[in-house]
Design brief:
The structure is a homodimer of 425-residue chains. By secondary structure, chain A is α/β, with parallel strands linked by helices. Chain A folds into three domains: 72 residues, Winged helix-like DNA-binding domain superfamily/Winged helix DNA-binding domain (Arc Repressor Mutant, subunit A), CATH 1.10.10.10; 149 residues, ATPase, nucleotide binding domain (Nucleotidyltransferase, domain 5, 2-Layer Sandwich); 173 residues, ATPase, nucleotide binding domain (Nucleotidyltransferase, domain 5, 2-Layer Sandwich). Chain A is 44% helix and 18% strand. Chain A contains 16 helices and 14 strands. A five-stranded mixed sheet of chain A has the order 5-4-3-6-9. In chain A, strands 12-11-10-13-14 form a five-stranded mixed sheet, sandwiched between helices. In chain A, strands 1-2 form a two-stranded antiparallel ribbon. In chain A, β7 and β8 form a beta hairpin. In chain A, α1 packs across α2, α2 packs across α3 and α9 packs across α10. Chains A and B meet through α1, α2, α11, α12 and α13 of A and α1, α2, α11, α12 and α13 of B.
């Protein structure tokens, strides 16, 4: 355990109080906050006073006490304390969500994207669309913007804010001397946090969705690529390097199909959209053999779905093989991590009718017997706004963890000079 | 977050204090305990007073303060507060470790075992050998025995104390109406905790070995079977069901080799001792085709090692394939969980000269590029006493978490009637 300085301990306690109020489904009394945090009532009184003074929390109408006695005032997040933006960058589109401090979505925006693109072009596009989303919510919002979260597919080192590889980015050029988060921080003037996209969907599920009361969950995302976000023991799991949960790049065969990451034999190279398109071309179902853009893959994937739904046996087989391969490895993730819930999401689930039976059958076959009854698989398609809300939630989490919630934002307005995660970077 | 009652909060704080002192490499001052736990100094004073009164902690000679001022008395675990026993049950031998309350090993014992055996026979053997180990340490020890931890290979639901399947046990008979932990509790008169064996090696590493400062670690064990213990975010990871980390039974092929668990295509069926013996027989290197006992597998495995070391090309190839298969899947565990350290242990590592180069090469090939520099693989063979010490540590952890440390053990001696984990079971 790291040694904590007293200032850090105080900050930890502020975070515990904020986090308890944030994840509660309704306002909490001070006694309830003490119960949920394990802090003493006097400590909670001191901490909530600081958070009320700063404007992070507000007092709301109290529930009548059970005994009919004095009503205790209850505490909730102050939605107007700060604004944050979350962005989901997919290979073919960009989705922006503007959220208030309570995590409520106030505006969204979705635009097409042509990837892979240079980092410079991505930063320019992101800045333009984020400003557009902010403008759509009214002029005062921009001044209270406290941070931006960006969810990207690929290998994202969330601890350093670095994208090591992503299908949306062309390989780094000499122009890209700054990391993506730093370049976007410079463009926007607020702290920027970069994360793997599936982790952000998992965070949204944990804060607002299925996983609110689930300690161990795997969120598998099937899109242009394959993703995995893990909630283990109640927290997003990132591992030592920030690069954990790379289900997509499990090496199934040393000399297997070439993955978009450049390695051979990755699971993704058998089950993602582009992998199915390759199989469809090899089977003569789809025309052409030239490399496809992301939009091209989306269109060809849609064509393959159409053929399968029309009853084309070879096309149906491609989706069934996708289901049984993916199901086997989801089952193996269950063998390794024993979650109670597996969510399968992403635009690929719109074709779940074609692969879900094979997926469930293979998952069951792969799982140890005791898991077969215990683990629930939920398949659905929520849309990119939820991922973007997850990216915004990451910013809220970072704000809660920092001293900004109490100091910078409230006392002096949003002070971006002192507030960033890496002020000396 | 679950709501905690004030008694639970107090217990949680006692645990935090005990845990900080337990994992410290040297005695701690009250100020250091406050720093490490995030508790206030007055709270630490109250809590340590209770723990000193109960005898769980002792005061030891103080270090001189840096400023040359008043010396503060320091706190350490009281080794004589209670005794615990840990047992590692392997298919061919039983290892017992008697530990004091500080986790120091006071006596060990190792006897051969003929498995699979009935639960009744295993309980009888365990009780006899544990009593023998206790007797070897002197008569007073038996009265202060506070619990027994048993580490077993197989599917062990640590939350319910149930062995769902283990290579050391014959399938349950009608006589086995009680669970293993309950049957052994009845035989020994103290609380008994059952756990997967690899988890217990991981716990020993975390408390006393390599992983003291490692937040994310995978311990892979290669023996008669294959095991995995995970430390994630500083804690042994058990998942929702207590059955997590089943690396051995990852399904590689739906119609692959039959595993000792009964499923087909499990990773273990390609790399464990019995899998190599099967391959050696198929290649005509080892005689016989009758089913082998655990001892028979050990002997045949030793014969195969001898052949390979003598230069037999086919035998060498079997070990190289073992290495490359195991390396690939260790690499994939790294892709999923991004630990900073992988330990490979178990008696199978005594033949590491035959497979380690292939294992390291395949692991590197399977891992994403960023992990190749960041992850350390350590291969060694520590012996079964370390696993048994881990099982004893589990009992200490359960004692720390319970109220027994403060109440039952100290004030009234070891009160087994009130102390068990499941008093109403």
């Amino acid at each position: 355990m790291a040694r904590l300085q007293s200032r850090q301990i105080s900050q930890l306690h502020l975070y515990q109080v904020l986090h308890a109020v944030r994840l509660a489904s309704e306002p909490l009394s001070r006694a309830e906050i003490a119960e949920r945090t394990g802090l003493s009532q006097p400590a909670v009184s001191t901490l909530t006073r600081r958070l009320l003074e700063s404007g992070a929390l507000i007092e709301v109408g109290a529930r009548p006490s059970q005994g009919g006695g004095r009503r205790e005032r209850e505490l909730a997040m102050n939605p107007d304390h700060a604004w944050v933006v979350g962005v989901k960058v997919a290979v073919h589109q960009l989705t922006v969500a503007l959220c208030d401090f309570a995590g409520g979505v106030r505006n969204t925006l979705k635009v097409p994207l042509s990837s892979p693109m240079t980092q410079t072009a991505l930063v320019r596009t992101l800045a333009r669309e984020i400003e557009s989303c902010l403008a759509g919510a009214g002029g005062a919002v921009r001044q209270r913007l406290a941070g931006v979260g960006v969810a990207l597919p690929g290998f994202v080192d969330s601890m350093r804010g670095e994208v090591l590889w992503s299908p949306v980015l062309k390989p780094a050029t000499r122009k890209d001397t700054a990391s993506l988060d730093q370049a976007l921080t410079d463009a926007m003037g607020v702290p920027v946090f970069i994360e793997n996209d599936a982790n952000m969907l998992a965070l949204a599920e944990q804060w607002f969705g299925h996983a609110a009361r689930v300690a161990n969950m795997a969120v598998v995302t099937l899109e242009h690529g394959l993703g995995l976000g893990l909630v283990l023991n109640g927290e997003i799991y990132r591992g030592h390097s920030g690069l954990a949960s790379e289900l997509a790049h499990l090496q199934l065969q040393r000399n297997g199909f070439t993955c978009q990451c450049g390695k051979q034999g990755c699971l993704e190279a058998y089950v993602a959209h582009y992998a199915l398109v390759r199989q469809g071309r090899q089977a003569g179902l789809l025309a052409g053999d030239e490399p496809l853009t992301a939009e091209g893959v989306m269109a060809a994937h849609a064509e393959l779905i159409k053929l399968a739904r029309q009853g084309n046996a070879r096309a149906r087989e491609i989706f069934e093989t996708q289901g049984s391969t993916l199901g086997q490895w989801i089952g193996n993730v269950v063998n390794l991590l024993a979650p109670q819930l597996v969510l399968l999401d992403g635009d690929g689930t719109s074709a779940a009718d074609l692969y879900e039976p094979a997926l469930r059958e293979a998952m069951t076959q792969a799982m140890l017997l005791p898991h077969r009854e215990a683990v629930q698989l939920v398949v659905r398609h929520q849309g990119d706004e939820v991922w973007a809300r997850g990216a915004a939630s990451l910013v809220l989490q970072r704000l809660d963890e920092s001293t900004e919630v109490v100091e910078s934002i409230s006392r002096h307005g949003v002070d971006h000079e002192s507030g960033g995660r890496r002020p000396d970077a």
